[in-house]
Each structure stands twice: as C-alpha cells, then as structure tokens.
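Hello,

I think I submitted the carboxymethyl coenzyme *A job twice by accident. Can you confirm which output corresponds to this input? Input:
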Amino acid sequence: MPESITITDNRTGESVEIPITDGGVESGPWTKLLPGIWFKDEGFSATAITNSAITYIDGDAGQLEYRGYPIEQLAEQSTYLEVAYLLVHGELPTTDQLDAWVHDITYHTYIHENFKQRMFGAFHYDAHPMGMLTAGAAALSTFYEESKDIDDPDLRHRQIVRLIAKMPTLAAGAHRYSQGWPFVYPDNDLSYTENFLSMMFRMAEPSYEADPVLAKALDQLFILHADHEQNCSTTAVRVVGSSHADPYSAVAAGCAALYGPRHGGANEAVLNMLDEIGSFDNVDAFVESVKNGDGRLMGFGHRVYKNYDPRARIIKETAHKVFEVTGKNPMLDIALKLEETALADDYFISRKLYPNVDFYSGLIYQAMGFPTEMFTVLFAIARTSGWLSHWDEMLERNTRIARPRQLYIGEATRDYVAIDAR
Ligand code: CMC
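Support: Only one job matched these inputs. Its output is below.
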C-alpha cells in the first residue's frame, strides 16, 4: 500500500488522496480540488521546487552528498574540477574524460580584451568585486550569442565550460582593477586554483608558484562550496533560467542572490563581525546582544542544517593546516570562543543554530591574503558548477516557467481620483 495523504475541503466535503512520492506530494491534485486556493509558503520552507539527482542533504544528521558521494570523501580525495565534472555529468570521470574536461576548462579562461579596458574601467576604483562579477557574468552573454540556444545540449555544455573557466578570470580582474594593478593573463600550465592565485597575486615574477598547501586548501574550499541543492542563489538561477534566458544571465542572477549577507555574503559579514567584537573579552557581551535581538551571529544557523554543517567541520580542520603556513589568523581565538559560547547557550541550542560553511572560511581566505570583499567572489567561483548543473538538469526536463501565486491583501476595486480631488 503506497503512502499517501488525504486533503478534505471542509466547505464541500470533497477529498483527494495524493500519493507520497520521493518524500513529497504533487501540487496538481491539490489545485484540482481547491482551484484558486494557494498554498502559502514564504521563503519556500515546505516547497520542493523540483526533483533533482544532484545533491542530497540530511539537515538533521548534518550529511551532504554530491551525486551520492559523501562530501568528506570528495574534500579529502578529489579536486574541484573533478567535482565540477561529477556535478555536471552525474558520474566521476575516467582519466581520459577528466583530462579532456580539464583541458577544455583551461583553454576557455580568456576573456575579451574589451572587459579589461571598458567594462572594468567603467567602475569606480572602490567598486565591490561582487558587483563587478555580477555585471561581468551578465556581460558575457553579449559575447556569446549562441548561448541563447538553450535547447541544444552541446551548446549548453560549451557555455558551462566557458563559465566555469572564466569566472576566476573575471574575479581576479575585478580585484586587480580595484588595486590598480595590471591584469595577469591565465597561465595554462597551472591548475585551476593555482592559476586563480596567479591571476590574483602575481606581480613581477616570470611565473607564479603557489604554496601547495594553500592551493590545495583553496581547491578543497571550492569543493565544499560547489553545490548545496536548492539554496537561494541556485533558485535564482533556476527562476531566471526557467524563462529560457541564456546561462550567463542566469548565473548573474545567482551572483546577485549570493551577494546578500544572509547567503554567500555571510563569510564577509563574519569577518566584519569578528573585527567589531575586537577581542576575546568582548565575546560574551556580543553573544548577549545577539540574544537581545541586536543583529545575528553571522556564520551561524541554516535553513536546512539543524546540526553542525559538515562543511564547517572540514573547514575548521583545513584552517589549522593553512595557519601552519601563513601563521595563525589573530581572529581565530575570537571565533573559537564565539563558537564555544554559542554552542553552550540555550538560545542557540533551542533553535538548533550551529556554525555553517561561512563561519571559518573567511579566516582562511584572510590568512591567504584575500581582501574581505573577495570572500563572496570566491564562493561564487566555486558555486558556478553547481548553479549550472541545476540549470542543465532543469532544461533537460523541460520544466515550466517559475511563476508562483500570491494571496492578494490590497485594496478592492476603486475608481481613479483626479489629482486635484485627492
Ligand atoms: N543568529 C541569531 N539568531 C538566529 C540566527 C543567527 N545567525 N539564525 C537564525 N536565528 C534565529 C532567528 O532569529 C529565529 O529566532 P526566533 O524563532 O526567536 O524568531 C530562529 O533562529 C529561526 O531563524 P529563521 O530566520 O527563521 O531561519 P531561516 O531558516 O529563515 O534563516 C539563515 C537561515 C541562514 C538565513 C539564518 O540562520 C541567518 O541569517 N544566519 C546568519 C547568516 C549566515 O550565516 N548565512 C550563511 C548561511 S550558510 C551559507 C549559504 O548557504 O549561503
């Protein structure tokens, strides 16, 4: 006997039985029984926007898997580009497939010279790099007219390669512009993260040699940020993509959503918060102020995780490896005390608020030399593969355009009043 639910319309006594499939119920029978009655779900807390075969999260258990592979194993044993392949294609690559994929990404890293001269040049010197990245992603669509053909799987794949390849170039370009430094062209002899570090930090040296521990740590952080199922920015990508806009425009929407401090902007907000706390001794007072409703503890809490975010656990370990190379980030002690205090406090315990992916990542980025405003940009680079896997999966299934309903609570019909009679 398949599991089901029954909904009864108490106005008419009519009922409908809806089978529970894959942990959800279809809205179709509901709509048929209750035309014009909408299910109100602000923030989509109880709405599954789709079926998806990409990422699995068990928020109570603190478990995360990409295509069935536990995040801990991928973070330990894989590389970001291999994980990107897995997300996009559904399976881990063979050696030949991985070589071809890495080659393709490596040879699509260049961006048009107009970007350097005109696009970045149009920004004020202190423009936030997330604003530049968002604009840059959208601008790419104007260079690739073919990207509008979203029905052709090969063309979709080409744009996916281009976007994964070019996001680091755009990101580093935004940073160098804000510093007034010359742009550094991609170096095809380097790995994905080494090349990004080279484009970010290379100065007069003929070639850039990244510290292997730091390059590996960044690669691991990219793996941890690569996908997180239907989060705010992925939903933004899906909603824009559902109108059949090109993938560059959809990814720009993802960047815009990620920018906010409740989502990807939290890593930057964590550092600003630690800065504001200033010293170990101020932690208790800060936690009290949060409990009294004065702001939030940034890097804490999650819509899905009601347990320790597994990514935060891995990042905390990585932080120690990075600090052996860079020296300890002086903010670490404040962060550790903050975590300890919050995890022992009933306010946080009763609401199941634990450190999330952003709590420790900023400390690592800062120790590596990234300015605070680049933190969300790093998240965006990594999340691009996840966004595009969902975009591709959605188009493969020919999903309908995203178009929710509303419960109207405004004025009833009334007549226009001429301005001199108001
Ligand atoms: N500090 C203090 N209180 C919090 C926090 C926090 N960080 N997060 C949630 N709460 C409280 C909130 O005030 C509410 O309390 P009450 O029931 O008394 O009103 C309760 O916990 C539930 O909060 P909510 O706003 O209903 O939870 P949500 O699922 O809508 O929000 C969240 C999830 C991530 C936006 C939120 O926890 C938050 O703002 N956290 C801080 C920002 C942050 O770290 N974001 C990064 C998320 S992980 C990376 C990513 O996915 O981008």
